[in-house]
């Protein structure tokens, strides 16, 4: 397929900038826009047969609403957000183009696609899907195709629960009142990694708050998390290590 211009709304930083560089290195002309720079949504849709929305979760649907009506039927509209059901629904409603929800399961710090998981949620049309598969797959990405709903259900564990645990750990550590200096002096390699994850989370409050609270399955995950903590607390209170050990053995047997 001949090279064509690709538009990335939100391509001035983060994962959007990563994909802008990726496509440029593959020989494509990339029009990357920021909040106050680059082509506006209507201009982007007119100039680029492929437009990718890469903005914070909270404004994704609004941006899709701006660019979607200008997309041609034979063009492709994609998004890179961590949630898929709502953005894909918004793209289907706002545009007449082909629609694919895309979730790269890595951050902008990775050097290449080699060995990285990327989720595809094809939603309308099939003309562009082979190009997406080939473009990402030939660079070593592991592609997983699923529905937006199934994606969000699994992400409730992979991301929402994971980040929730990091948040709760961070809040608990701060409530413990032990200085960062003392913690680092007594830290194991694993705990230092956890401290780094906590620092990263608190440095990006909007991103992680939207990933946790924005997932449609968040309430279920919160209930499971609360129930698990209650179970562990109860076991420790009853007979200490013996009951807790037995429960761990039981869970290990279910694997």
Describe the structure.
The protein is an alpha/beta fold and 255 residues long. The chain has 11 helices and 7 strands. It has helices at 14-25, 41-47, 57-67, 85-94, 129-137, 148-176, 180-185, 189-203, 205-214, 218-239, 241-253, and strands at residues 6-9, 30-33, 50-53, 76-79, 98-104, 117-124, 142-145. A 7-stranded mixed beta sheet has the order 2-1-3-4-5-6-7, sandwiched between helices. Helix 1 (14-25) links the parallel strand 1 and strand 2 (30-33). Helix 10 packs across helix 11. The radius of gyration is 21 Å and the shape is elongated. The termini are far apart.
How helical, in percent, are the residues? 55-70%
Distance between the termini: 46 Å
Output the number of helix runs.
Answer: 11
Q: What is the makeup of the main sheet?
A: 7 strands, mixed
The secondary structure category is alpha/beta
Q: Unreliable runs, pLDDT <50, ≥5 residues?
A: none
Structural features:
single chain; 255 residues; alpha/beta; seven-stranded mixed beta sheet; 11 helices; 7 strands; 56% helix; elongated
Summarize this entry quickly:
By secondary structure, the protein is an alpha/beta fold.
Q: Secondary-structure map with pairings?
A:
Layout (H helix, E strand, L loop, with lengths): L5 E4 L4 H12 L4 E4 L7 H7 L2 E4 L3 H11 L8 E4 L5 H10 L3 E7 L12 E8 L4 H9 L4 E4 L2 H29 L3 H6 L3 H15 L1 H10 L3 H22 L1 H13 L2
Parallel strand pairs: 1-2, 1-3, 3-4, 4-5, 6-7
Antiparallel strand pairs: 5-6
Helix pairs in contact: 3-4, 6-8, 6-9, 6-10, 10-11
């Amino acid at each position: 397929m001949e090279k064509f211009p690709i538009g990335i709304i939100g391509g001035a930083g983060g994962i959007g900038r990563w994909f802008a560089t990726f496509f440029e290195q593959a020989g494509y002309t990339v029009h990357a826009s920021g909040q106050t720079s680059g082509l506006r949504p209507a201009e982007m849709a007119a100039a680029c047969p492929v437009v990718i929305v890469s903005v914070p979760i909270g404004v994704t649907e609004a941006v899709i609403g701006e660019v979607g009506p200008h997309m041609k039927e034979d063009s492709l509209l994609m998004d890179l957000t961590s949630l898929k059901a709502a953005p894909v629904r918004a793209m289907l409603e706002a545009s007449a183009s082909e629609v694919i929800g895309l979730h790269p399961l890595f951050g902008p710090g990775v050097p290449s696609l080699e060995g990285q998981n990327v989720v595809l949620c094809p939603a309308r049309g099939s003309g562009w899907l082979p190009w997406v598969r080939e473009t990402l797959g030939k660079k070593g990405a592991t592609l997983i195709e699923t529905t937006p709903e199934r994606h969000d259900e699994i992400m409730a564990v992979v991301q929402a629960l994971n980040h929730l645990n990091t948040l709760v750990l961070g809040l608990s550590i701060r409530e413990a009142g032990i200085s960062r200096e003392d913690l680092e002096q007594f830290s194991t390699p694993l705990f230092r990694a956890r401290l780094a994850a906590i620092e990263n989370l608190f440095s990006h409050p909007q991103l992680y708050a939207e990933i946790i609270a924005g997932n449609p399955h968040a309430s279920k995950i919160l209930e499971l998390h609360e129930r698990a903590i209650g179970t562990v607390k109860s076991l420790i209170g009853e007979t200490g290590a013996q009951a807790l050990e037995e429960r761990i053995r039981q869970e290990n047997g279910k694997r």
